[in-house]
Amino acid sequence: MGRSRQALRWLCALTGGLLVSACVTAPLPVTPGQSAASQVLAVHCARLIDGVSPVVLIDQTVLMVDGKVASVGRHLHLPRAAQRLELPRHTCLPGLLDLHTHLTDIPQNTADFSIYPRRSPEEHYVFARQNAKAMLEAGFTTARDVGAYVGGLDRELRDDINAGHTPGPRMQVAIAFLTIAGGGGDMLLPGFPAREAKTPLSRLRMGVARGPEEFAVKAQRLIDQGADLLKVIASGAVLALGGVPGSPEMKPEELAAVARVAHANGRRLAAHAHGAQSVKDAILAGADTIEHASFIDEEGLLLAREHHVALAMDIYNGDYIDTEGRRQGWPAEFLQKNIDTTEVQRRAFTRAVQLGVPVVFATDAAVYPHGLNARQFRVMVERGMTPMQAIQAATSVAAGFMGWSDRVGQLTPGHYGDLLAVEGDPLMDITRLEQPAAVVKGGEVVRWPPGPPAQ
Ligand SMILES: [Zn+2]
User: Fold this and answer.
1) Which distant-in-sequence residues (6+ apart) come within 8 Å of 178 by Cβ?
2) In angstroms, what is the span from residue 192 Cα to ligand 1's centroid?
3) How much is the pTM?
4) Which CATH entry fits the domain spanning 96-402: 3.90.76.10, 1.20.81.30, 3.10.129.10, 3.20.20.140?
5) Span from the CA of 362 to the centroid of ligand 1 (angstroms)
6) Percent of the chain having pLDDT more than 90?
7) Which of 5-19, 20-34, 288-302, 437-451 has the lowest mean pLDDT?
């Protein structure tokens, strides 16, 4: 803080704000490294998208007090102690939400899943922390984590982030995949010698069950251990050896048993379902979101709309797998299953948008690196959404399907002070969202625009 500014602060304090205009027009700049969580932060933006309204507001200031949005407007009276973040060429948006991530896993460039028991949970956790930091700095301030191979590591990450021990997005976690034995979420490793495991094999198979009764017991156990939502693997997976993405794995009565436990405990159910039949089974069983939905048919789309079930379609990562995965030598089976699901899923996405089926932003990050989540916006716009629809899918619409409409997904009073700013106008060029200039979480600036801090 400069001497003159310090003197002004003194003067304001001494006169009890009698020199009001000088006091309010000279707020203090934010300096990198300075926490604003318990302070007052004023973010001035050239344009503002609030996450709910389709109208873009011009020349707006977002005032955050104690981590929450206190007011938004053009000529706000800023408290004397306000820190200031000037974004004169930027568009501000709510911090983004990604409803399908696996923050404790790493991109799979190998078919050898024995890397999971060969590493200790502590070794895995190093990657988890890196992923969380990368995602936050990319402007994603909220993540729904839909299953960890090392069961429970996501809960540890969530709790560490909430306690301020490590930077990362606000998280909802599923703790483990609920899956049949040998299914898409089962880390069955035939022949792997248990004595060589640094992560107990039981931790890799926490959610494996068969029959409605056992699924209900395991579902309740996950909730008792701190799961914010439940995740079922209803059909085969793409990135799992031997699984067939289109064919059902869990039976309708097993899905219904998990849905009952989820809803009885006030939790949401996310259902991994590629196949047309599994999508319908999961919707009718009570799932709240359908993950992937690659082979969803017209009947399934109409059913989703009727039951107000959102589709969480990861329509970018096919490009990444086909280029980067091929370059890295991923297994031929993965590459072929990816080709089989990518284009058909994108066509289904277009149809879902045409029919007005709810769609939430969901990337399946971990298939590709966390931090690159925003790459999916381009494909969503190419495949039928308006840029504003795509932004709302990653803000207020996503928040609604997490049950967090009251806290994230919009820049309006009472919500967390979570904000992303990009240079220019993302409605003219949606790929602007891939280049965050500033990120604020809970009123704390975690990423500053390039150049010196505002003076
Ligand atoms: Zn996934």
Assistant:
1) 185, 207, 209, 215, 218, 219, 222, 230, 231, 232, 233, 250, 258
2) 24
3) 0.90
4) 3.20.20.140
5) 9
6) 74
7) 5-19
